[in-house]
Structures are given as structure tokens and as C-alpha cells.
Amino acid sequence: MNKKVLILGIESSCDETAAAILENGKIKSNIIANQSIHEKYGGVVPELASRKHQQNIIPTIHQAIREANIHKNEISAIAYTQGPGLLGSLLVGSSFAKSLSLTLDIPLIDVNHIHAHILVHFIENNQLSKPIFPFIGVVLSGGHTQIIWVESYFEMKIIGTTLDDAIGEAFDKIGKKIGLGYPAGVKIDKLAKKGNATRFSFPIPKTPDLNVSYSGIKTAVINFLHKNTQQNSNFINENINDICASVQDTLIKISMKKIEKAVLEKNNNRVVIGGGVSANSKLREILLEKEKKEGWNVYIPPIEYTTDNAAMIAMVGYLKYKENKKSSITHSPYSRMS
From residue 183, how far is each of 169, 275, 294 by CA, in Å? Predict the structure, then answer.
């Protein structure tokens, strides 16, 4: 495709309002408006999230267009997150995308949020190589934990999933019990670097096939903290680095155990990681070690593409645009994967 194709991507699946402009596979702008209001509640409040999206969406899109140094009439198509996610939040993004596509008389493209976390690796970046199909896709985030067999841009099959909490959710819930507030994943990662991961032992659950479970470790940590703080009220403060290191080590081991199994079962060592937890330093360290010692081909996204962002939505929109996979204005958002 020789002509200039500009895609506006809109992401509003949870608590980040994001907009990006992509030109022929290259990112020209990528703006994210965070919602700090949820911190005092210890988690995302859906009603507050949707209200904040309504406040943020116009200035966020305006900033993305301005930073890309384009005019809105130059946009070729609008890609938006159709799901999965919080329905109220998705409705804000999808409604605005539909209205703008009608106003500008340009195509509308709906995007699966999970697919986008995988396909973000196909953004044009001279510093990074692109995955070769087929490969094992792994999405680790606050809302999703899935192992996916990826045969092409649009042929993906879930081969493993969480039976309860997502890994990022487990990080946050455990972090809340430790007293780190919300969100806790980054804080646990930071404290873990100063701790001893073998100091405390937590269970690795036995789950069928390629599925995972994180509720067991959450319960185990809560009971562990309760027992020890009964004996020493200052136990957490005195041992916080080791607690965080031990918790993080266990959560990552649960995930890696199934990723390793998928590599063996599929006889494919191309592993493509996406989602907020792909920013975790321990996970990155282990994956790069696999690449070095066992010959895996590991693809880890740049930090700016790990959390929910619109660049990944725009990328899928561009791939769909090239294949003429356009959407109908009647398509509705969905909160869960089918």
C-alpha cells in the first residue's frame, strides 16, 4: 500500500483513556490519560471510570491529533476497542468513535483488546524484530491472563486461561493486603529487587492443561500475613522486601510453568508477551534467560506498549484496514470474550 494511511486508535476498556495516530504502521502519537481517582478505592470503580472517560476522551484525542501534526480530515479510519473490558468504559470509546466516523465519513474498525496486546509487536520499529507466524502469544495483565496460539493476524485460539483471578489482579489484591495501595504491581516489583525470593514459600497450584490459577496464592499470602502479624504487629514492615520478592517469584513461576508447557506441546519456541505484567522485571529476566540458554525467540513489548494503550488498537486497525475488514456502526461493545 503506497498511499498514506492514517489510523486514529481509541482505547477505553478499563481506566485509561488513550488515543493514538498511526501512519502506515508507524506511531506518530500515543497519548494516555490515567485515572488516579481509583487509588483511594483500592481498585477500579466502573461507574467512576466511565465518567472519567467522558471527561478525558475529547482532550486526549485532540492531543493525539495535534502531536501527530495532522488534521482530522486526513484520518483514513478510526479503530476502537470493542471489548473485552468494562462495558460502561467501552461504550464511551465506541460511541465517540462511531460519531466521529459518521462526521468525517470514514470507515470504522472494531478491535479485540486481547488481539491488540499481541499484535502491538507489529508496529514499525527499527530497533525490534517482528514475530514470525505461528507463535505462542501470552497476555498477562490486570484483567486477562491467556495463552494463545497465533497462526496469523486474524487467526488466534485461546489454549490456556486463568480459572479465577488474572495475574495483575493477584498482584494488586496481594499488594493491598501488604499495604501498598492500588495499583501494586510496580511497587511489588520495585521492592522485590531488594528482597530474597526464597525467604518465604507459597504454593504453586496444580491446574489442568495450560490453564492457571492465582486465587490459591492470594489466599495463602493473606493467611500467612494474618498469622505472622498476630505474633508480630510489625512483621510486614520488617520483612516487606522479602515478602514482595517471594510473592512475585511465585506468581511468575505459575505463569512460566504453563508457558514452558505450551512451548513443548506446540513444539514452537516463539513466545510473544503482551499486557501490563509484561513490564515486570522478573518476568523479563526469566524470558531473556530462556532465549539465551534454551534458544527461545522471545518478543517483549517496549514499556510504553505494555499497559493499555491506543497504539496497539491503531495497529490492529491498520492491519484490518489493509484487508478491508471494516465494521458496522451497529456493532456493540462486549465485556467478556466469547
Answer: 9, 15, 34
Q: Are 49 and 86 in contact (CB under 8 A)?
A: yes
Report the distance separating Cα 95 and Cα 335, nearest Å. Answer: 15
| Rounded CA separation 196/257 (Å) | 21
Residue 32 C-alpha from the chain's centroid: 14
Here the CATH number for the domain that contains residue 28 is: 3.30.420.40
Mean of pLDDT over the chain? 94
Cα(185)–Cα(322) distance, rounded to whole angstroms?
37
Using only C-alpha atoms, what is the Rg of the chain? 20
Answer yes or no: do 253 and 211 share one domain: yes
Answering whether pTM is above 0.90, one says yes
Residue 239 inside a domain? The answer is yes
Q: Which domain holds residue 18?
A: 6-123+306-322
Closest CA to 181 of 19, 29, 42: 42
Is 101 a member of any domain?
Answer: yes
Sign of the alpha-carbon torsion through 298, 303, 306, 309: negative
- Domain check: are 114 and 151 in the same one? no
Tell me the DSSP string of 156-210.
EEEEEEBSS--HHHHHHHHHHHHT--SS-HHHHHHHHTTS-TTSS-------STT
Looking at the fold, whether 186 and 92 belong to one and the same domain comes out as: no
Q: Which of 70, 7, 67 is nearest to 32 (CA)?
A: 67
pLDDT in tens, 109-121: 999 999 999 999 9
Alpha carbon distance 95, 43 (integer Å): 25
CA atoms of 82 and 255, how far apart (whole Å): 27
